[in-house]
Design goal:
about 290 residues, alpha/beta, Helicase, Ruva Protein, domain 3, Rossmann fold, 2 domains, seven-stranded mixed β-sheet, 13 helices, binds S-adenosylmethionine
Length: about 290
């Protein structure tokens, strides 16, 4: 089998199984089977696959037709231009979460004096994508990243090691910031950031099969009415932030007003920022 033919076969198999973005999935799986990049794939369409590579590619395609996300098959996802290891223990980092990173960088760079040290908490770290993207951009930053899932924290710690950021990003098992505050860390942070699980019970039917059957439920399904994590996190964030510090959270579809209403007293400069599609995506509030 040649590269061109392999891509055609993959596209057909994936289309027949109604896999979303079948061209991209076929390309990524073939790149993974051949251990090459996209440039090499398209510049050598006549290259023959070894029998071993062809068998591996067909096996990967068969896995993808079950609904298993491409990223869990290849074990990789790009976020903020960085390469992350992903396993079924962590949510696959989403491009829309880059808006949250962008919002924090804008706030940090806008108010910073050269040499300022930022202390940040990332609540619900998952793969570590937010914490590690921020650490890669802000050299004078210490990040305390929590997750309730020990398995997710192991993946995040491996990502930190691969990206050479273990000295500035510390991962801890915690229920939101409960243990952090219990250690007496009051009014010590410049930012509390979070992309919490926020899909409510009324929305679970709209969730794609790939997410529902393969991504960890703990990572996407919001407890209670879907807003429970915000309800618990905002008072904790208020205690942990310095005056003037900010909480920055990702929100679900059309949740801007309901999440804002959960902030309560003691906040100022409340903003809801849209993503590139104009959908409200990030809520920011500053501790008064
Ligand atoms: C939507 S995922 C976000 C992962 C990653 N930050 C990202 O943006 O891709 C939410 C994460 O919150 C974690 N989580 C759920 N409940 C939590 C809690 N009570 N305390 C800390 N983390 C929690 C989940 O295990 C999951 O890793």
């Amino acid at each position: 089998m040649f590269v061109r033919e392999a891509l055609r076969t993959g596209l057909q198999m994936l289309k027949e199984s109604a896999v979303p973005s079948p061209e991209l999935a076929a390309e990524l799986l073939l790149m993974h089977a051949l251990g090459c990049d996209r440039g090499r794939l398209h510049s050598h369409p006549e290259q023959a696959l070894s029998q071993e590579a062809a068998e591996l590619y067909l096996k990967l395609l068969a896995e993808r037709t079950t609904g298993k996300p491409t990223q869990y098959i290849t074990g990789r996802q790009q976020f903020w231009g960085l390469d992350f290891e992903v396993t079924p223990d962590v949510l696959i980092p989403r491009p829309e979460t880059e808006h949250l990173v962008e919002a924090v960088l804008e706030l940090a760079r806008g108010g910073a004096k050269t040499g300022d040290l930022f202390r940040v908490a990332d609540v619900g770290a998952g793969s570590g994508c937010i914490a590690l993207a921020l650490a890669s951009e802000l050299p004078n930053t210490e990040i305390y990243a929590t997750d309730i899932s020990p398995a997710a924290l192991r993946v995040a710690a491996q990502n930190a090691a691969r990206l050479g950021l273990t000295d500035r990003v510390k991962f801890k098992e915690d229920d939101l910031l409960t243990a952090f505050l219990a250690e007496g860390q009051l009014a010590t942070l410049d930012f509390v950031v979070s992309n919490p699980p926020y899909v409510g019970p009324a929305e679970t039917d709209w969730v794609q099969r790939e997410v529902r059957e393969f991504e960890p439920r703990l990572a996407w399904e919001g407890p209670g009415d879907g807003n429970e994590i915000y309800r618990r996190l905002f008072p904790q964030a208020h205690s942990a932030l310095k005056p003037g510090g900010c909480v920055v959270v990702e929100i679900g579809y059309l949740k801007g007003e309901s999440v804002k209403s959960l902030l309560g007293a003691g906040w100022t400069q409340v903003k809801v920022l849209p993503d590139l599609a104009g959908i409200p995506r990030v809520v920011i509030a500053q501790k008064a």
